[in-house]
Amino acid sequence: MKADLNYSPSDVYETFPRPVTTAEVRSNGEILDRLRFDVMIDRSAGLTKLYNMVHDPAVKDSDIESLRENHRKIDQSVLESYNWQDVDLAHDFYPNRQGTRFTVAPSAQIEILDRLLELNHAQHENNSPKNSPHAVDRHAIAAGSAVHGQEHLTPVRDGDTLF
Description:
By secondary structure, the protein is mainly alpha-helical.
């Protein structure tokens, strides 16, 4: 058996600090799925072509604006599920290495990544063997984490995801 490093999706996402999926996140995701499908059919476009239009500030068509609005709603509902309503997402068109993208402001991206990193560190600390006399379930997210008011985070169960 080889000793190469292997990062499988389960290894990566099992330790990701996720809140429980809310009804609003689920509903917005279902709306996005249907809307995206309908627009792709109507325009005879694949996902790449569709998102090239979403990221193009010159495209003002109502169906593309609807997709952008739905992405705003999803992002906001995910923030609310983390109890991070204080983060101003400031959706707009921003340059990055891939070109111009419709996304949240760079300052919001940094703030979100910083908070996720803090949660990940807290989750690791709470799940480390030195803090428990017993083996820790890798799926557990410590309830009661005080990082940015995360008292409402609960253990993640298989199949309970935001994606």
